[in-house]
Design brief:
alpha/beta; Alpha-Beta Plaits; rod-shaped; about 35% helix
Length: about 210
């Protein structure tokens, strides 16, 4: 050793640098953090493209989803197809003590396009026994079709089937009858019956 070092005892000096454990630990921690960030980023990307995502991603997608929901909600189920007045024959009967009421009402219905059958006084089953505006009678097949078309002409008239075989309807005028509703209002009522209905999906949470 050139006389510079003197060896005593059984121990010898170390000729290499001691390991720096601090740097090794820091390197391991850095690697773990890097892998964690890469894994989190990958999961976020998968979540975004699969339809999930964070609140910010949901906020960006909500307008598009709202338009799609509105389009689905606007799907019409289709309205009823009601017969026009020209295909409905009506018998008009007077169950009140007012003279000429059945004829006057039949003339007005004819002007509105209805076909008129019998006109006269009501039978004993209804004569002076109808306290309301009137009763509209017809076959079971007329329920939801011709009955509401005629019923729209008389506000408050009761509509019911009586099991008859033919398609002709009966309008029995009662004590509460004040006249036919305005033609425009009757047409609006019939149009409302034929309007298609829609469904509305519930609003999704998180938007």
């Amino acid at each position: 050793m050139g006389g510079k070092y003197r060896i005593t005892g059984t121990k010898y000096p170390r000729m290499r640098r001691p390991r720096r454990r601090g740097r090794l630990v820091a390197a391991v921690l850095a690697s773990v953090c890097t892998l964690g960030l890469l894994g989190w980023g990958t999961l976020e990307l998968i979540d975004v493209f699969s339809g999930g995502g964070s609140t910010a991603g949901a906020a960006k997608r909500c307008p598009a989803e709202g338009k799609a929901d509105a389009a689905r909600a606007a799907t019409a189920h289709g309205g009823k197809v009601l017969p026009p007045p020209g295909r409905i024959t009506v018998n008009v009967y007077n169950a009140t003590q007012r003279t000429g009421l059945a004829k006057d009402t039949a003339d007005q219905l004819k002007k509105r396009g209805f076909k008129i059958g019998d006109v006269g006084n009501a039978s004993a089953d209804y004569d002076k026994k109808v306290k309301g505006a009137g009763v509209v009678l017809g076959p079971t097949s007329a329920v939801g079709t011709s009955l509401p078309v005629l019923g729209a002409q008389v506000a408050g008239a009761e509509q019911r089937p009586d099991g008859r075989k033919g398609a002709t309807l009966d309008l029995i005028l009662g004590d509460g009858f004040k006249g036919l509703v305005k033609a425009a209002d009757a047409n609006k009522a019939v149009t409302a019956l034929t309007a298609p209905s829609t469904t509305v999906d519930p609003v999704k949470k998180g938007c």
